[in-house]
Amino acid sequence: MEIRKFIEEVRKLGLLKEILGADWNLEIGAITDLNAKRNKYTLLFDEIKGYPKGFRVLTGALLDSKRVGLVLGLSSNLNDIELAKKLRERLNYASKEYMNYDPIIVNDSPLLENIDKEEKINMFKFPAPKWHEFDGGRYIGTADAVITKDPDSGWINVGTYRVMLVDRKKLAIFMDASHHGRIHMEKYLKRGEKCPVAISFGPPLSLFIFSGMEVPAGVSEYNFAGAVVGDRFKVIQGEITGLPIPAESEIAIEGYITGEMTDEGPFGEFMGYYAGGKMKSPVIEVERVYYRNNPILLGTAPSIPPYDYSYFRCPIRSAMIWEMLDRIGVPNVVGVWAHEVGFSRAFIVISIKQTFAGHATMVGHIVASSPLGAYGGRYIIIVDDDIDPSDLNQVIWAMCTRSDPSNSIDIIPNVPSTPLDPMAERRENVKEYTSSRAIVYAVKPFSKLLKNEFPKEVKPSDDLVKKVTEKWKEIFEDR
Length: 479
What we know:
Blueprint: H1 3-12, E1 16-20, H2 27-37, E2 42-46, E3 56-59, H3 65-71, H4 80-97, E4 104-105, E5 114-117, E6 139-141, E7 145-149, E8 156-159, E9 162-167, E10 170-174, H5 180-190, E11 195-200, H6 205-211, H7 221-229, E12 234-237, E13 244-246, E14 251-264, E15 279-291, E16 296-298, H8 313-327, E17 333-338, E18 347-352, H9 359-369, H10 371-374, E19 379-384, H11 392-402, E20 409-416, E21 434-442, H12 446-451, H13 462-471, H14 473-476
Parallel strand pairs: 1-2, 3-16, 4-12, 18-19, 19-21
Antiparallel strand pairs: 2-3, 5-15, 6-9, 7-8, 7-11, 9-10, 10-15, 11-14, 12-13, 14-15, 17-18, 20-21
Helix pairs in contact: 4-7, 4-8, 6-7
């Protein structure tokens, strides 16, 4: 869904707030962060200090299941687990049919209303915020879609990586070691070639959602996201690189990563810390800038969860983990939820109907070391099928009553991680990091389940609940 259509749909839902006169220097970031922790509006900033009316910033686009469902063409009335279940169905379809969703090349697009070349290029033309007080610069790319191509296979990858303004014609980009865009870049540089790159700074929201997820290597996010929503993306070919750029973008650039490095960061990141510090990151030399009249920059201010984009990855990652377990033949997984408090990565709960001895162990180890559970991960919690994995009260209760720390926790060392982890032991000239994972088995012991020996829970029966809630509706009706 393109950003402008989304804005109008959110306006109809009463969830849009337009904010006039905010400063790009810290105010937009602070408002965005506080809003995500309180009222959760979608925010459209205009008349930004120092910028002409119409050069806008959009934040808070994907703060709940209603807006994520809207963007992905699903019902906007689904709760968290219902959304994950629906997404699981769409992911299953996408994994089989993505090859039928190649993007469509078009020759015309509103993105071509303005094209800046050579001396006309000025990346400070756009109101890129300084999002946090201790950031090392202004970040134009926080909710972007970065397009690269594998020089060997031609595979097009679309990733979300942070991008900082350096000067009028240069940007700095941070891509962690395991990310596909980084792998593409290093292939070009090792050959002594520049790496072509294009970036949409206001991409279609469905593409943005999957550009930040673990789509399998070799599969383009254009195809995968297109299959999920059931529609092929329209793209234009960049004048310089030939890379496919979303035709529904608000702002886009293309250019080259040359091998030059520059100071980049620190930046307030998704774990809630400035953990990465100042780094040496690759420079992008910008050779074309495309933008619509009255362009909208899509952005976010990561911080301590919940933050502006901590929610939308929760149902997506949950559905992807659920689908992965089903695809490899793990039986009786009844629910998965990647919790927002763990920025969708560090606290993942899987509910299973225990079927055989070691069932919980199998699930825990698969998820903990999989690409979907490894990067930025910390805790995998396995619970029984009577526990709602999205309800922290139920999950913590299960941990406190169905696990014994001496024999219910496995530790897996040396799992791939990130320098953005505040617990990472940073060392000079080290770019790749690992950390440990804990699997907590908050399930009834299987031997006691077989013999029906585990104590009975204290709760009213379903029949009694139905009887009293119908008889005393004035007490139990939603307020």
